[in-house]
Specification:
single chain, 130 residues, alpha+beta, 60s Ribosomal Protein L30, Chain: A
Length: 130
């Protein structure tokens, strides 16, 4: 999939691109994912980092079913419960997107659908060949 990551000035340090340009492929609109338990059903309550990793892995599995991969994400909206977790999420995102960062918004919210949730990620990916 041809994509161009538009470079910004300060955005690189925050692990996102101000814009991503794609040509060809199909758009995949992903529902918000917030994981309060891991793949084996173990609670992740109170563990922001584990919830972030589990959410990104779950999104990756969904994208595989749609014919893509996590790195096909071109934009994401990340909702976090505590603004103090923002910098940690940025560091985690760098691990998942080494070739180029998706466009992104990071928003602090007052709560989620379940009180154990600390993060929810919604995304759009472009997958397929040109």
């Amino acid at each position: 999939m041809a994509r161009e990551y538009v470079k910004g000035t300060w955005q690189e340090n925050r692990a996102f691109s101000p814009a991503v340009v794609t040509r060809g492929g199909k758009a995949v609109w992903l529902a918000g994912v917030g994981m309060r338990a891991d793949e084996e059903g173990k609670s992740l309550a109170g563990n922001f980092e584990a919830q972030a990793h589990a959410s990104l892995r779950a999104i990756g599995r969904t994208l595989e079913r749609a014919g893509g991969k996590l790195q096909d994400i071109v934009t994401m909206t990340v909702f976090i419960l505590d603004v103090r977790h923002g910098d940690r999420f940025v560091e985690l995102r760098k691990q998942y997107f080494p070739a180029g960062f998706p466009a992104s918004a990071l928003i602090t919210v007052a709560g989620f659908a379940h009180p154990d949730m600390m993060i929810e990620i919604q995304a759009v990916a472009v997958v397929g060949e040109e």
